[in-house]
Amino acid sequence: MLAEIKGLNEECGVFGIWGHSNAAQMTYYGLHSLQHRGQEGAGIVVTDGERLKGTKGHGLVNEVFDGEKLNDLTGTGAIGHVRYTTAGGGGFENIQPLLFHSQTGSLALAHNGNLVNASQLRRQLESQGSIFQTTSDTEVLAHLIRKSGFTSMKDKVKYALPMLKGAYAFLVMTETELMVALDPNGMRPLSLARLGDAYVIASETCAFDLIGAEYLRDVEPGELVVINQEGLHSERFATPTNQAMCSMEYIYFSRPDSDINGINVHSARKRLGKQLAKETNIEADVVTGVPDSSISAAIGFAEESGIPYEMGLIKNRYVGRTFIQPTQEMREQGVKMKLSPVRKVVEGKRVIMVDDSIVRGTTSKRIVKLLKEAGAKEVHVCISSPPIKHPCFYGIDTSTQEELISAFHSPEELCEIIGADSLTFLSEEGLLKAIGRESTDSNCGQCLACFSGKYPTEIYPAENDQSKTVKS
Amino acid sequence: MLAEIKGLNEECGVFGIWGHSNAAQMTYYGLHSLQHRGQEGAGIVVTDGERLKGTKGHGLVNEVFDGEKLNDLTGTGAIGHVRYTTAGGGGFENIQPLLFHSQTGSLALAHNGNLVNASQLRRQLESQGSIFQTTSDTEVLAHLIRKSGFTSMKDKVKYALPMLKGAYAFLVMTETELMVALDPNGMRPLSLARLGDAYVIASETCAFDLIGAEYLRDVEPGELVVINQEGLHSERFATPTNQAMCSMEYIYFSRPDSDINGINVHSARKRLGKQLAKETNIEADVVTGVPDSSISAAIGFAEESGIPYEMGLIKNRYVGRTFIQPTQEMREQGVKMKLSPVRKVVEGKRVIMVDDSIVRGTTSKRIVKLLKEAGAKEVHVCISSPPIKHPCFYGIDTSTQEELISAFHSPEELCEIIGADSLTFLSEEGLLKAIGRESTDSNCGQCLACFSGKYPTEIYPAENDQSKTVKS
Amino acid sequence: MLAEIKGLNEECGVFGIWGHSNAAQMTYYGLHSLQHRGQEGAGIVVTDGERLKGTKGHGLVNEVFDGEKLNDLTGTGAIGHVRYTTAGGGGFENIQPLLFHSQTGSLALAHNGNLVNASQLRRQLESQGSIFQTTSDTEVLAHLIRKSGFTSMKDKVKYALPMLKGAYAFLVMTETELMVALDPNGMRPLSLARLGDAYVIASETCAFDLIGAEYLRDVEPGELVVINQEGLHSERFATPTNQAMCSMEYIYFSRPDSDINGINVHSARKRLGKQLAKETNIEADVVTGVPDSSISAAIGFAEESGIPYEMGLIKNRYVGRTFIQPTQEMREQGVKMKLSPVRKVVEGKRVIMVDDSIVRGTTSKRIVKLLKEAGAKEVHVCISSPPIKHPCFYGIDTSTQEELISAFHSPEELCEIIGADSLTFLSEEGLLKAIGRESTDSNCGQCLACFSGKYPTEIYPAENDQSKTVKS
Amino acid sequence: MLAEIKGLNEECGVFGIWGHSNAAQMTYYGLHSLQHRGQEGAGIVVTDGERLKGTKGHGLVNEVFDGEKLNDLTGTGAIGHVRYTTAGGGGFENIQPLLFHSQTGSLALAHNGNLVNASQLRRQLESQGSIFQTTSDTEVLAHLIRKSGFTSMKDKVKYALPMLKGAYAFLVMTETELMVALDPNGMRPLSLARLGDAYVIASETCAFDLIGAEYLRDVEPGELVVINQEGLHSERFATPTNQAMCSMEYIYFSRPDSDINGINVHSARKRLGKQLAKETNIEADVVTGVPDSSISAAIGFAEESGIPYEMGLIKNRYVGRTFIQPTQEMREQGVKMKLSPVRKVVEGKRVIMVDDSIVRGTTSKRIVKLLKEAGAKEVHVCISSPPIKHPCFYGIDTSTQEELISAFHSPEELCEIIGADSLTFLSEEGLLKAIGRESTDSNCGQCLACFSGKYPTEIYPAENDQSKTVKS
């Protein structure tokens, strides 16, 4: 059944602030620290108490905004969004926050996650005459809110949210209120902080550190936080169910200096590396990590195993979007971008190459080849996560099952495919232990669906024109 | 006397190729791998045997060139240049390679290094009616060549070079020849490789690895290499003197995967860290390095000392040229770009912070403050090079002596200024030993002028309008 | 009552083509010939029978489109739009054609004219949960169509149109049909032509001449034309009422080479000038016209009066959007852009200056001053239209009544205000006669509302948040 | 002999001001009014008494400059230049003013005209070691000045100018002086004015009108004007010879509101049309002019002949540089840019089409075809200048002799080639009479070389690599 379901999954980052005289500037810096969560586009909407005003665009935060644009965004409340680079691009209108005006008031939405019933809801709304502006699943919430008969915006939001299924961290802003909601499984990170008198919300705590805000607590699964001139008010739109925080946030997605559910990401990664070293027993001369996301794990592995850590691979910092890719002919001649092996480090050595995950296997294969061509005697690939066998419907771009090489190949077969001398995956138990969770039962606090196929929510088969819907 | 001498010193990177059907494309990739040597501007000039044609511009290699521009540069010989970001910018005309047309033939020049008598030579040439197009010291060589009475280009170059003083790695290209020259002290790295039938020259060997070229040898001090349809021909325009390779190339400037004089840079840096650990004796909980250039040294330090290496500082990858800097008011509120401390890693810890050098002290002071604000109990700064007390006149941007904080302050005073709990510099002996050289006498093969004040060449006092001259 | 009504009125141009292999390219050229009708923005939507695809942007047609963008717009049906420059700019989303996607099909709209009940309709639709994407009055029709319960698109459109009040020439395109509708008063020009097997629709016939299409007939008031694979089919959504073609189309708005209702615009203007000469009796040495729109009338005036026509004013062709306007101080020093008097032509002369209309009087005052400073002995202003005393609600930017100087000042007062030696307006009878219409009764075929205050449709007082609605 | 001589001839415009607090802004407006003389590029150099500073770029004046750039150009003296669009483009470095720095002072040059011995002088200078920065003939003067042994800049210029042959109006500016020179034949217009205490120099008097400057006099042939803090000082670097003002300046190049040698251009053109009417005797229904340059002549023709003037052709104002040209296939379908016939004006009529000149004949042929396709019964082409049979070496782009259709075809043959019903050229005598000169002897004050082949200066055969030299 799962194989039927196609979709463009994305990860994103959200940031919000309420009660700060430089709301737009703070959001700019906040989004900047969340930039790793999305490089396709960025946007900020502010409110000055009377109207909403926004700017958004394709590219990095510092490409979308300049001083003039930021200065135009005067207001004391703001929400912002960074969007993941998708293969096929994506229209300007899909860049968030989405902003809707009407003669009775405006509404801005920013969303991290992925709704699994967006297509069903949209079809239903269109049959009633609604016109959608975007192909983003986020817009569904706007229509549900606007069609709601309730009077207060809080009630409109509170009764619209239960119609959504999937993973979501939503920021909803009107002229006079900022509302924050997290899905009942708490699948995406979302934290709350204070900056003087202002409240700050962000996908990752690294955004708080940057602007000097003080971490208060994580938003709870099923919680609706309303912030307005009367302060912060919390209530539940859903009773708590089993928390299922996305494991990939720890494994590779979040920034090492962020804490998720109170656990530091770099430290978790280093423990993943240590645990991986414990679970294997390879004789080697050097340990090296695939930059940037696997360096912490590689250092942990080296520390645990006693094998020295070396910089065996260099990531090129200057390969931008406009970089001219080498032709096939040139690639054969040796032109290789992005990652360079350090010949003198690996030449004649037995190398343990630590990476965070294997999705399609093509990258791993390429890196093993690079290291061998640079003279490595043996290359032992050690992966600081279990095999990914199942697609993610909640916002991580692990694509369709057909593309997941571990769905169809055993580690032994995969080892041969990527040309390594050995291939080791971390166990699920090891993963939970290293992160700092107790057990693998359904109550472990982590979503392990991409490894185990046990999804925390129901999944809907996508319909024929699903391709028209882009998830945020 | 030295304090009188002002100038804008710069480091750059050069690349050349002769006898390749995709000369411009190869140069594009070569320059890309030398991008860390200069981000201000880039240029490529090609020859198709009949005429020279070039493109250049401000910015990164992939900003200056696109597919169309590269395809226009048809030819089998090419030279390219990347230029360091200078504070005050620098005119378009100064971007290299410089290209000079005349009714009897054209000439392209690319230069890494700095001439110490450029101003004197220029003044002399102008008094004879020469009109300069740039404020670059590189142009002096073009005028010397053009005024030379010799018939062959090789002789024109050979007899012009001895009039230059300082550090230089020159690529000179005409319609039919590529000439390569290194100053008699060999102060800048310059290596030679083969790619099929083509010859390749580059400032660093990492450029060879990228395009699959095979390293042949380093260009020798005082050597003039002439490459044309008859192959490669080498002769000397100067007898060899004491080699004086710039030590900063090992300490922070070159890429870790390059080999300079046969010594791998990452390995040298790791040895610098180990040697530094040997020379000091600090009790601490974690070792952390200032990314990116000090990571190798920090890992070496950790390995030698047994203190665990941790990622205590994160470098932000997305801070581009157009990034809006926080105002003073925001900085006070905590907005800090570029470098973030990892709170959970340093909180309550005694931290050894390894950095490659201290120039003005402001950066070190800022990082110590960051770490302390993030909760570090103690911060011990360990520098993997000796104190920089003297300005560089050969192309490294260590500015004027007034700005060199070690010129006027002892390590103890400096420790207090930067707010560290201790400050350790590597010794000159330790530096040479770690790099792999024998002794500190004048024959050690390294230039130590910025530490010792012993310059390998004579230095000329700059004249009043020196400010008009930009060094390449 | 009229003074209560505020709004941003605009004139625009529309073009459509059905059944042509280069539909987008033809639309590009068509829009180009309608460029004078709107320079703020331009857009094209095409259909290839299966889906709609569009491109739009701020600026001129040749700024919005390049070869690549046009080539992407493959299809055999297309509609396009050029938009008038409004004072306060206008959001990207308001640029037309508007394009709406849904899971059951797409819809594109292009509109020339102005709806007088847009605000009322929008308010009603929003109260039912509709979310508007733009602040354009055009979007109202899209929502009316989508909410319609009819099955066929033709019926949806046919029964939605009667809810609209005002002036409109609408192009509505789906994947498989192009529909064309003109308001029951026929207030905007809209003509039909053939190009081989294709049908072409345009605001002005000059677009047909450019692409070599053959004029068929004008679209009739209240007519709905449906073009699809079965050919062209016409029906009426309203019975014909009195035609009320906008008189400004003849006076200054349309291109001289266009024919409106079978009357050539240049010839009509020349007749306006002749009629004006008949209605006045001024002794003068030269006749000059304010370029470009008044040249035809000035030549007619000269021909009729026997006073020689001279080029007394030169329009500067290079004053673009980015031109730096002179400061007040510079203006006093004489810096005058856009229009230059030809000193030798007017010096010491009695000059008749023919202009097409006076709205605020500021331009006329400025030109009289220019001519006098250049030495004109007398300046007699002759206007080839009657005084504009009433605002236009149908799309011509004659703004609010407060800004219409003739609403509050007699010609004698106005003559003094602008500093002229005499001021003559054309009579309403003269206007109709010169255009070629019979009488001034309500059946004359022309809208004279801005002169007479007799509006052909009812007018609605604008509501409080009217300012949020931009008319197309 | 002439046929051997190839070259790229160009017309340009120069402007200078000295002693004005807003020198750059005034130059911006001045260049703007000279924009018709060159649209390829523009530049301004200012002096603040201590240093020269400039900005230049490709495109129109208002594209090259914005408020920020102009504000950077602080100074009380300025020179500016606009450059003609050449077929093959032209390098950035050739855009003027050229600016040369040296350690002893800077020099800026702006030039209108064309040197006929530039190639010879350049070759000579290069053989002595000079390196040229541009391919512009203007740079030759800079080298001649710099190589001069004289002490004062005035003497350097005064003794360098006599080495130049051809047509030139030069502005030379140093930190402290502005020098103005006109060739001994006075072939290019150059006038002097006063603006308060400041002196102003411009290619055309329309620039004075724009900024409110008061015309003083024309610069005399062979005159060198030096303006500095001591005021304006005039001397001669050559004795006056026969003045030979370019006739094309009157016929089509200059702006109608300019006066050249005291003669207004529009009035001269109208007289050319009247004279043309006197010299011919065609029965026709309407007279129409090819916009913009032939309108004055057409009106004169109509006035003299009594045949009514009509707007038979419309010039499209929006065809910019980036406009997508119709493909051959589209042209056949009727897509015609730039010029549209007014069908209702010419249909069934005998049309006299007045144009200013015929160079290759292709444009005339195209317009005749347009008019006939629009229904003109007869098209009589009347040209307000004599046949152009000889190339111009002084800066007007009448190209090589091979391209001049009148060099090889009689008017009768040409009439057939362009498909007209008759073709009339103005006589040389008529031309001089209409302009206001006495006779056709060598002392008539006008250059008639392109009609008669009698060149006012010697001409040098171009050498082999002439193609490398672009004239200004």
Automatic annotation (TrEMBL), chains A, B, C, D:
One of its GO terms (biological process) is purine nucleobase biosynthetic process. Keywords: 4Fe-4S, Glutamine amidotransferase, Glycosyltransferase, Iron, Iron-sulfur, Magnesium, Metal-binding, Purine biosynthesis, Transferase. It comes from the Bacteria. Its cofactor is Mg(2+); [4Fe-4S] cluster. Residues 12-230 form the Glutamine amidotransferase type-2 domain. InterPro entries: GATase_2_dom, Ntn_hydrolases_N, PRTase-like, PRTase_dom, PurF, PurF_N. Pathway: Purine metabolism; IMP biosynthesis via de novo pathway; N(1)-(5-phospho-D-ribosyl)glycinamide from 5-phospho-alpha-D-ribose 1-diphosphate: step 1/2. It is an enzyme of class 2 (transferase). [4Fe-4S] cluster binds at C246, C392, C447, C450. It holds the Pfam family Pribosyltran. Binds 1 Mg(2+) ion per subunit. Binds 1 [4Fe-4S] cluster per subunit. It catalyses: 5-phospho-beta-D-ribosylamine + L-glutamate + diphosphate = 5-phospho-alpha-D-ribose 1-diphosphate + L-glutamine + H2O. The keyword Transferase applies. Its EC number is 2.4.2.14. GO terms for molecular function: 4 iron, 4 sulfur cluster binding; amidophosphoribosyltransferase activity; magnesium ion binding. Mg(2+) binds at S293, D355, D356. The active site is at C12. Catalyzes the formation of phosphoribosylamine from phosphoribosylpyrophosphate (PRPP) and glutamine. In the C-terminal section; belongs to the purine/pyrimidine phosphoribosyltransferase family. PANTHER family: AMIDOPHOSPHORIBOSYLTRANSFERASE. NCBIfam families: purF. This is Amidophosphoribosyltransferase. It comes from Oikeobacillus pervagus. The gene is purF.
